[in-house]
Design a protein that fits this description.
Mean pLDDT of chain B: 94
Number of helices of chain A: 4
Shape of chain B: globular
CATH architecture of chain A: 3-Layer(aba) Sandwich
Order of helices and strands of chain A: EHEHEHEEH
Number of strands of chain A: 5
Number of domains of chain B: 2
CATH architecture of the largest domain in chain B: 3-Layer(bba) Sandwich
CATH superfamily of the largest domain in chain B: FAD/NAD(P)-binding domain
Largest sheet of chain A: 5 strands, mixed
Structural class of chain A: alpha/beta
Distance between the termini of chain A: 17 Å
CATH topology of chain A: Glutaredoxin
Mean pLDDT of chain A: 95
Helix content of chain B: 10-25%
Oligomer: heterodimer
Number of domains of chain A: 1
Radius of gyration of chain A: 12 Å
CATH topology of the largest domain in chain B: FAD/NAD(P)-binding domain
Number of strands of chain B: 17
Strand content of chain A: 25-35%
Largest sheet of chain B: 7 strands, mixed
Low-confidence stretches of chain A: none
Chain lengths: 105, 288
């Protein structure tokens, strides 16, 4: 499964499966988010079958952003067993995300 | 388009690097302040720049800038708010995205200590980017800690979005929207629990859910995690290479002496090293 674009329903369904999940909270107006976009897409390919990687548009899915207290974008939140295990704020280098993913595979 | 070399900083080091890089036929983008806003432009007399004694700082800056422009470098006025190293370098300047294959840091000295609580609450109420995060605070009270000339404009933007904005600074800026309440304060402290709950300004608490700290420049070490420093200066070798491959540095940011001729010399070296770095990259990574 390639990169997922979550709404509340698909997000909750994915979360309920309990797999390792990495979710990029972003918005179109946010330039650093757009900068990070291609990195997230590549990670979705690299981790195909190993982790669920998706994006949440905070403009359309304000409820999800609110639920996780996203106050600055891009924010990337990692989940496992349905729970938040880690988050990173900002357009950080790819390795930062790779390290967190690998540690939790 | 992707530039061969992106230079952060439009002072003597950055402009010298631009001219040298153009001399090696590299495409060059310089991102920085207007030359009139350079600290050097405020110097009444520069008497130790070889061959050009008794110049004002403004005269030097104007000449340097014209030289760089005429060399064919592209100069863009603005602040880099975000930078990412991934298949080259990607940067956000205002609402524009740029790309480069190598990077020269020449931002000068950014003399701005962080406020207590700032790092702790970054991303949990503290933000450096009004255009990125403003929407997330619609209808809520925010404080703008204005430390740059652009900050009043960002404050007006936040107000337009529907944030309840209070502006805090050491002095009231000339162009601040009169409808935005102004608080004069020097000592700022971020307060919060899980997230930001307020800003303490000279002891008085301003309750808010967001604090936009808007400085003249984002420090290179914040833009590039992993950039090594030594006694507050960016660590470089004799080629002006930093600890990150493809990233070079020049001028005041690498340490003393804080002099024009030193900055110009380092800018040249950094550009030549960047050109060398580009020439040994596999072809697909360089600009078309």
């Amino acid at each position: 499964m390639a990169l997922q674009h979550f709404d509340q329903k698909s997000f909750d369904a994915a979360l309920a499966e309990g797999k390792l999940m990495m979710v990029d909270f972003w918005a179109n107006w946010c330039m650093p988010c757009r900068m990070l976009g291609p990195v997230i897409e590549q990670l979705a390919q690299d981790y195909e079958g190993k982790a669920v990687i998706g994006k949440v548009d905070v403009d359309e899915q304000g409820e999800l952003a609110m639920r996780y207290g996203v106050m600055s974008i891009p924010t990337v939140i990692f989940f496992k067993d349905g729970k938040e295990i880690h988050r990173e704020v900002g357009a950080l280098p790819k390795e930062v995300f790779v390290n967190v993913l690998n540690m939790n595979l | 388009m992707r530039y061969d070399i992106v230079i952060l900083g439009s002072g003597p080091a950055g402009l010298s690097a631009a001219v040298a890089a153009r001399g090696r036929n590299k495409s060059v983008l310089v991102v920085g302040n207007r030359w009139q806003d350079s600290p050097l432009a405020r110097a009444e007399c520069v008497d130790n720049y070889l061959g050009l004694p008794s110049m004002t700082g403004a005269e030097l800056m104007e000449r340097f800038t014209r030289h760089a422009e005429e060399s064919g470098a592209n100069l863009v006025t603005g602040k880099v708010i975000s930078l990412m190293a991934w298949e080259g370098f990607h940067l956000t300047v205002g609402n524009e995205l740029y790309e480069g294959s190598s990077l020269i840091l020449a931002p000068g000295v950014v003399r701005q200590a962080k406020y207590p609580g700032e790092v702790e609450y970054l991303g949990r109420g503290v933000s450096y980017c009004a255009t990125c995060d403003g929407m997330l605070y619609r209808g809520r009270p925010v404080v703008v800690a204005g430390r740059s000339k652009e900050a009043p404009r960002d404050a007006a933007y936040l107000k337009e979005l529907g944030c309840q904005v209070v502006y805090v600074a050491a002095q009231r800026p000339e162009y601040l929207d009169p409808a935005i309440p102004f608080v004069q304060a020097n000592r700022l402290e971020v307060e919060g629990e899980q997230t930001v709950t307020g800003l303490r300004a000279d002891g008085a608490l301003l309750p808010c859910s967001g604090i936009f700290i808007l400085r003249e420049a984002v420090a290179p070490t914040d833009l590039l995690p992993g950039l090594e420093t030594e006694n507050g200066a960016i660590r470089v070798d004799r080629r002006m290479a930093t600890s990150i491959p493809g990233v070079f540095a020049a001028g005041d940011c690498t340490g003393e002496p804080l002099q024009v001729s030193k900055a110009v010399g380092e800018g040249l070296t950094a550009a030549l090293s960047a050109a060398e770095y580009l020439d040994q990259l596999p072809k697909k990574d360089t600009a078309e």
